[in-house]
Amino acid sequence: VSVSRHKFKSVYADTVIGGHRVLIVKPQTFMNNSGEAIAEISSFYKIPSNRIIAVFDDISLDVGSLRIRRNGSDGGHNGIKSMIACLGVNDFPRIKIGVGKKPHPEYNLADWVLSRFSESERKEINETSKKAYESILLIIDGKIDRAMNLYN
Fold first, then answer.
1. With the C-alpha atoms ordered 39, 82, 135, 5, is the resulting torsion angle positive or negative?
2. Which of 56, 60, 68, 78 lies most in the core, judged by the most C-beta atoms within 10 Å?
């Protein structure tokens, strides 16, 4: 699907996945303000927060690891912190995709998460992306426990 509609401080697509109408949203704000975009689009379309699935990188997980949570804290991720602040709740499911730890403490975090993957890491991330998509199919079908059991 082409994610190319511009509105709500985002680019987004309105499509059908697994028989369910879904919006795929890529905030165009700085990551630390991504909750603004999510709050605008969820308010406009009247989407309850527990029907929002956040998919994001996680430096505390090894490259290619996948972790699914029903809800929870921001875990130190500023984008999720922004979503919680703007939505006023933390009850949205989330899929964390591991990008690995910084190579050393002095390394700039933004440079690390925006850097390119090695060829082997790219293969790992591609496989993880497939698992993330499969977990999304389960979650939108109301089977988050199954998704967590299969992919965590």
1. positive
2. 68
